[in-house]
Amino acid sequence: MRLGVFGGSFDPIHNGHLFVADSVREACALDRILFVPTREGKHYRNGAMNASPQDRAHMLRLAIASNAAFALDESDLAPEATGYTADLLPRLQARHPGAALSFIVGGDSLTRSRWKRLDEVIDMVEALVVAPRFGVTQSDLDAAVDGLSAERRAKIRMLDLPLVDESATAIRERLHADKTVRYLVPEPVYRYIGERGLYAT
């Protein structure tokens, strides 16, 4: 079994996330993608607009229900979860013994966040799969992995995908300003946000 691990706040899940996940599954010949929302992200922006972990997990369930290759894993929502990938991966490996794990990360997250224990993360996975993002150059990516050994850098796979400009931050800001996000998020997620009044002023 070859599993892709797609971690993040998913605040909220949007169509860009789904496109990246399915593209990685196809490009890396993965059997399944695990969406793993974090309980307490280390790099949240504008925290006042965040949805609860329960709402984010429910929106994920709604978003991925139609794709049999997608699954939700709530390991990182547990009270004892640290929010660090290096602590998450052993728990996932224990839940999926024998599975080869690939961790999916956006180029913006890799280059603009201060990753702790990145070497440990890479040692635990088959590949660190990096999806391109607007504004992230090859020079940025090279600088982010500069301190890694050649052996570890060889496990990093930069995907050639169409650039996705959607971001959860922009979606939250639109909702905060009472602007539509229909067709930026899956329709069930759009309805859930409206019913629950999430991200509103």
Whole-Å distance between the termini?
44 Å
Overall domain count: 1
Query: How confident overall, as mean pLDDT?
Result: 90
CATH superfamily: HUPs
Shape: globular
Order of helices and strands: EHEHEHEHHEHHEHH
> Main sheet: which strands, in order across?
3-2-1-4-5-6
In the CATH hierarchy, the architecture is: 3-Layer(aba) Sandwich
- Which CATH top level class fits? Alpha Beta
Helix content: 25-40%
Overall strand count: 6
Radius of gyration: 16 Å
Quick overview:
With 201 residues, the protein is of the alpha/beta class.
Q: How are the elements arranged and paired?
A:
Layout lengths: L1 E7 L6 H13 L4 E6 L15 H12 L5 E3 L12 H11 L4 E7 H6 L5 H7 L2 E5 L6 H7 L5 H4 L2 E3 L9 H9 L10 H10 L5
Parallel strand pairs: 1-2, 1-4, 2-3, 4-5, 5-6
Helix pairs in contact: 2-9, 3-5
Question: Any key phrases for this structure?
Answer:
201 residues; 9 helices; 39% helix; alpha/beta; single chain; globular; 15% strand; six-stranded parallel β-sheet
Describe the structure.
The chain is an alpha/beta fold and 201 residues long. Helices cover 39% and strands 15% of the residues. It has one domain: HUPs (Rossmann fold, 3-Layer(aba) Sandwich). A six-stranded parallel β-sheet has the order 3-2-1-4-5-6, with helices on both faces. Helix 2 (53-64) links the parallel strand 2 (32-37) and strand 3 (70-72). It starts with a strand and ends in a 5-residue tail after the last helix. Residues 42-48 have low confidence and may be disordered.
